[in-house]
Write a structure and sequence with these properties.
Layout: E1 2-6, H1 11-22, E2 26-31, E3 46-49, H2 55-58, E4 67-70, H3 83-101, E5 105-109, H4 121-135, E6 140-145, H5 149-160, E7 164-167, E8 173-174, H6 179-188, E9 196-199, E10 205-206, H7 207-218, E11 224-227, H8 229-242, H9 245-257, H10 272-280
Parallel strand pairs: 1-2, 1-4, 2-3, 4-5, 5-6, 6-9, 7-11
Antiparallel strand pairs: 8-10
This protein binds NADP nicotinamide-adenine-dinucleotide phosphate.
Length: 281
């Protein structure tokens, strides 16, 4: 298949590009900064340079492609744009070009469904795009993955500095998933019928255990500080009052994930412990 990968320069997008090429597909990578494709350059057949928030630059990006996989999103970066500009509007712009070009499949990377998350702006923006996709008439699959291993490298970074900070008593649980497992599901979706696929790592882990795994990979003694959740809840509430959406929209998401159980079906194969061991080398 000829596949346009949007978000190709990101953590997940680079995994998707590699899996597509390994399975023999033709890869057109959409990037606003093609230099960021360097780590996967060998897996890219063609680059389309565009900022997906600007429909003019996107025009024609889906011509002569069979499918689109989008992992475009605003992840942990407070800049000029909000989640509504990127997670919703940029993906909608892309969808419009996909419909115009008559692609046969659109795979969209959304986010895990969890009761605590649904009211957050980032998640609302993603759900709004999911709805557009359902109404577009295009065959589609919406991926609903749990947190990626890349986000949990923050524990390894803190452990390297000697201390991990956890929210609450450390017993909130999550099953993080490797980008390679999500990418495999994204590429599987190209010729599957499911309109939604929930994705989570193979192990449901309390955050306390994740912190211990990080220290274990480094071979250092665990030193953990617990921060009461009321401090986080009050900080999030204050940020909603004091900062614009482009700031609090980015911050409220990880802080909410870290202070609730966020659980998905255990579909992934890679274990966080092994990821930490490789990353800690
Ligand atoms: N990280 C997680 O734990 C997690 C969990 C569940 C779901 N997700 C979702 O999965 C998706 C991918 O996440 P990720 O961790 O791979 O994020 P990431 O590394 O930040 O990648 C995001 C990608 O989107 C691109 N992008 C952003 N704005 C753009 C624009 N205006 N035009 C063109 N490209 C644009 C980025 O390009 P640049 O390289 O130029 O910035 C990058 O390639 C996101 O939708 C995210 O919400 C993430």
């Amino acid at each position: 298949m000829r596949v346009l990968v949007a978000g190709s320069t990101g953590y997940l997008g680079r995994h998707i590009v590699r899996v597509l090429k390994d399975r023999g597909h033709y890869v057109r990578a959409l990037a606003r900064n093609p230099a960021r494709l360097e780590p996967v350059r060998d897996s890219v057949d063609e680059v389309f340079t565009a900022d997906a928030t600007d429909p003019k630059t996107l025009a024609g990006c889906c011509d002569d492609t069979d499918a689109v996989i989008s992992s475009i999103g605003l992840v942990g970066k407070a800049g000029k744009q909000t989640c509504w500009d990127v997670d919703y509007r940029a993906n909608r712009n892309l969808l419009e070009d996909a419909v115009r070009a008559g692609v046969s499949k659109f795979v969209y990377t959304s986010v895990v469904r969890a009761p605590a998350l649904e009211k957050l702006q980032l998640v609302r923006a993603k759900r709004a795009f999911e709805q557009e996709l359902r109404e577009s008439g295009l065959a589609h699959t919406i991926l609903l993955p749990n947190g990626y291993f890349s986000d949990f490298d923050a524990y390894l970074d803190m452990a390297r500095k000697g201390r991990v900070y956890l929210f609450g008593d450390g017993n909130f649980r999550i099953n993080p998933i490797d980008g390679a497992d999500v990418a495999a599901a994204a590429v599987d979706a190209l010729d599957a019928d499911a309109s939604e696929v929930e994705l989570g790592g193979p192990e449901v882990l309390p955050h306390e255990e994740i912190a211990h795994e990080a220290f274990g990979a480094l071979g250092t003694q665990p030193r953990i500080t617990h921060i009461p959740t009321w401090i986080i809840a009050s900080s999030v509430a204050l940020m909603r009052w004091l900062t614009p959406l482009r700031v609090h929209g980015v911050v409220e998401f990880p802080l909410t994930v870290l202070t609730h159980d966020v659980l998905s079906p255990t579909t992934g194969r890679q274990r966080l412990r092994d990821h930490y061991k490789q990353t800690a080398l």
